[in-house]
Design goal:
Radius of gyration: 22 Å
Number of domains: 3
CATH superfamily of the largest domain: P-loop containing nucleotide triphosphate hydrolases
CATH class of the largest domain: Alpha Beta
Number of helices: 14
Strand content: 15-25%
Largest sheet: 7 strands, parallel
Length: 436
């Protein structure tokens, strides 16, 4: 780790980062030395760390006002950035606010202004109108995945927010695509643009799978049996298609989660949690999962339906073959289906559906208690090891949220943990524990 980032070294290691990549190094230096920066780099390359480290270095800990504002297109990305800042152990107060979250939670979190406020444009604009907090000390604005925010209809709110800020000295815009138009309301004068979108393409392998049936369900099943037990995303264009595939996979004993815009926020978050901790190996999703969500790198994705626009195709593919790793994108094509213009002629592969798909050994438990109750991962691990009598191999990933926590436990130990640990004391409070 370079000397200039030595203060972050220990906590970056907790995030699984032993050294910064070349994009992050260059971006950090550029943001430190320029007031206007446009960072264009694919999904999964580490843009969040690249803009957070230099920005957090500028926070004045004694100033109890919002100093940095980060706008994101989705709730999931806002939550992800909030969690990264907390994991960095900066001691800086950060809160994420977004649509679908109760106003009461916002009021509680904003009662004492965070130094860093992260949120979706709609919710942030609403608080600007209400004058919930003082905006006079906001000196840095970050528009993360700004093109996505514009694409889903936040232009009015973003413009309103930017026009309300009179004392901004640093502006940072990020995108996973280089085919973007900078909105006029940002009022950039002489931005420094960093483009990394052409790097790493050689690591992605595209494979066409021909389907004799229009619905492609049997072909999808055979593709999964060809790939074997690996985590991946099946991309669709419509909610109805996701539900259709979900029913089919359930009938064939394929455990999976679903992720699309029409779901309740809690259900979407739980789907990602189960995907991250291995309870589900598969996620059936719309393009909402193509960027701005916190999931590990994947070995494969499947295009059950192709998007109309090339940039969405690229964003989907960005979920695999990140940076210097390898990955495969499978394209399911009905024999009479036309390919979009952005795809070159790709010869179909012959599937070898020889793998057995086994059920995940993990299940997810929910504990009613989280950061607000001063509960840590160590507290939960200690409870499950000591009173739950679990071994290290029987306890999986632990995730802590504001008011609840999620724990991956081996399937054969779930009922034992519920029976043993429900209503036990943790941090002087009795906890409720349930299977989700």
């Amino acid at each position: 780790m370079p000397d200039k980032n030595s203060k972050w070294t220990e906590n970056l290691l907790k995030l699984g980062i032993s050294e910064l990549n070349s994009m992050q190094e260059e971006a950090i230096s550029t943001i430190q030395n320029n007031d206007e920066v446009i960072l264009l780099s694919p999904t999964g390359t580490g843009k969040t760390i690249a803009f957070l480290l230099p920005v957090l270095d500028q926070i004045k800990p004694d100033l109890l006002e919002v100093q940095t504002l980060i706008l994101t297109p989705t709730r999931e990305l806002a939550i992800q950035i909030e969690q990264v800042i907390r994991k960095l152990g900066s001691g800086i107060k950060v809160n994420a606010i977004y649509g679908g979250r109760s106003g009461q939670k916002d009021q509680l979190d904003l009662k004492q202004s965070p130094a860093v406020l992260v949120g979706t444009p709609g919710r942030i604009a609403d608080h600007f109108r209400r004058e919930t907090f003082n905006t006079r000390f906001i000196g840095t604005v970050i528009l993360d995945e700004f093109d996505k925010s514009l694409e889903i209809g936040f232009e009015k709110e973003m413009s309103e927010i930017m026009e309300s800020l009179d004392f901004v000295s640093k502006k940072i815009l990020t995108s996973a695509s280089n085919k973007v138009t900078i909105p006029e309301f940002v009022h950039l004068k002489n931005p420094k643009t960093l483009t990394f979108t052409e790097k790493g393409k050689a690591q992605l392998e595209l494979k066409m799978v021909s389907s004799p049936d229009k619905d492609k369900l049997i072909t999808l099943l055979n593709t999964l049996l060809h790939i074997g037990n690996q985590p991946g995303i099946i991309f669709c264009n419509f909610k109805d298609t996701i539900e259709y595939i979900s029913d089919y996979l359930l009938d064939n004993n394929f455990s999976h989660g679903c992720f699309y815009g029409g779901m309740e926020q809690n259900d979407r978050e739980l789907a990602l949690i189960k995907f991250r901790n291995g309870t589900h190996q598969l996620l059936i999703a719309t393009d909402l999962a193509a960027r701005g969500i916190d999931i590990p790198e994947l070995k494969f994705i499947i295009h059950y339906q192709l998007p109309l626009k090339e940039h969405e195709f690229m964003h989907r593919n960005g979920r695999t073959a990140r940076m210097n790793s390898e990955g495969t994108a499978y394209i399911l094509k009905w024999e009479e289906e036309y390919l979009p213009l952005y795809l070159d002629d790709i010869k179909p592969i012959t599937l070898k559906p020889t793998h057995q798909i086994t059920l995940s050994p993990w299940e997810t438990l929910c504990i009613m208690g989280g950061r607000r109750d001063k509960i840590s991962k160590g507290d939960i691990a200690g409870l499950f090891f000591k009173q739950g009598e679990l071994t290290k191999e029987e306890l999986g990933i632990i995730e802590i949220q504001q008011d609840r926590s999620y724990v991956a436990v081996k399937h054969n130990k779930v009922q034992h943990c519920i029976d043993t640990l429900h209503n036990k004391k943790l941090k002087e409070a009795r906890i409720r524990i349930s299977w989700v």
